[in-house]
Amino acid sequence: MIQSDSPQKVNSRPSLFLTILLGTLSAFGPLSLDMYLPALPDIQLSLHTSATAVQASISACLIGMAIGQLFIGPWSDRVGRRQPLMVGLAVFTLSSFALIFIHNIGLFLIVRIVQGLAGSAGQVLSRAIARDLFDGVKLTRFYATLMTINGVFPVIAPILGAALVSLFPWQSVFVTLTIIGVILVVTSLFGLPETSQVTHNQLEPLNFKAVFKNRLFMLNASLLALVNGALFTYIAASSFIFQKDFHLSTTSFSLIYAFNGLGIALGAQLMGRLTGKTSDRNLTRWGFLIPIASSGLMLLNALTVNNFWLFTTALWIVVVSIGFNNGITTAIAMASTSTNIGTASAVLGTFSELVGGLASPVVGLFGSTSSIPMISLIIIFEIIGLILLGLTSVTTTN
Predict the structure, then answer these.
(1) Contact criterion met (CB below 8 Å) for 330 and 127
(2) Based on the structure, what is the number of domains in the chain?
(3) Can you tell me whether residue 197 is helix, strand or coil?
(4) How far is CA 281 from the centre of its chain?
(5) Residue 304: inside a domain, yes or no?
(6) Range of the domain at 51
(7) Mind listing the pLDDT tens digit for each residue in 247-286?
(8) Do 371 and 245 belong together in one domain?
(9) Helix (H) and strand (E) counts for the chain?
(10) Cα(264)–Cα(231) distance, rounded to whole angstroms?
């Protein structure tokens, strides 16, 4: 039988150090992906390969992140959070360093998978550590802060990557990731205490079954997955819509994309401020209702005048709502389980990335010169989320 002692919850406000550290750990996605996007053409020339092969390195890292969570989360339930985190950070740092010296696309893709596997430790364990330390309103507000920090990185990372590539060879991006990895290893080693008090039987099988049988958790995890589906629908389609339908330049689109990225951070921060003033369910309900209304306005606009400013404003409201709901749905999902927290965080993250990953090609199947497919798919995700939210309320009362 597995036995575990619940760690003592933090009653005071989280320290600035803990907030920044866990926020950075949760942002391994933008760090590993967005920062090196400006370097893709240079990497293609340097490795003497095709654009398709270099772009596959994005998918390789994402696959690693999705799979890695399923191993690291349950492992942390057995041995605590520090050991898996330190191993993940060390491997991430070493793989980033190795990418500096690779000149073969096949090996480059393999190491990118390893980098994603290791980087998933930051994503899955930042959620688990927060759940170890906080509950109730404190947990929701802390997740809101993490999502705020997370939302800033997609804005900063590509700008930093572009600056590095303009001044130095493409390897400078991975030099920077190596330095970030070393900093996180040192700060986590000396500044992050163990938060999960475990006395597990090391031979006990991984307990995914208990997580999947938790109906309330799985319903709440589905809410976050649907929010992620709407987010990746926007990410996959927005560049084509702005550049092909509205004929914007690459620079103009980049500015709008950055402004929307700040909108995600603003939405998460707004959610944190509203937490405690009404129930989490009410906040989540508004988080689904507002983008449905705003998407409806976008759809009406696309079918009639197709005004650029009306579309851009309504889309920004949708993106802010995604940032708002990302934090709140993460909080209610993690709050609906008090055992197997690392495993639950792994299922939550992998499920969300799976739905998000499926949304990208689905929206592409319907063409890239109109905003209607993107708008329609976002509406579908948000409506299903509203329906599932009703089911979670029924499950809670039963």
Answers:
(1) yes
(2) 2
(3) strand
(4) 21
(5) yes
(6) 14-191
(7) 888 778 878 888 888 898 899 889 888 888 888 889 999 9
(8) yes
(9) 15, 2
(10) 10
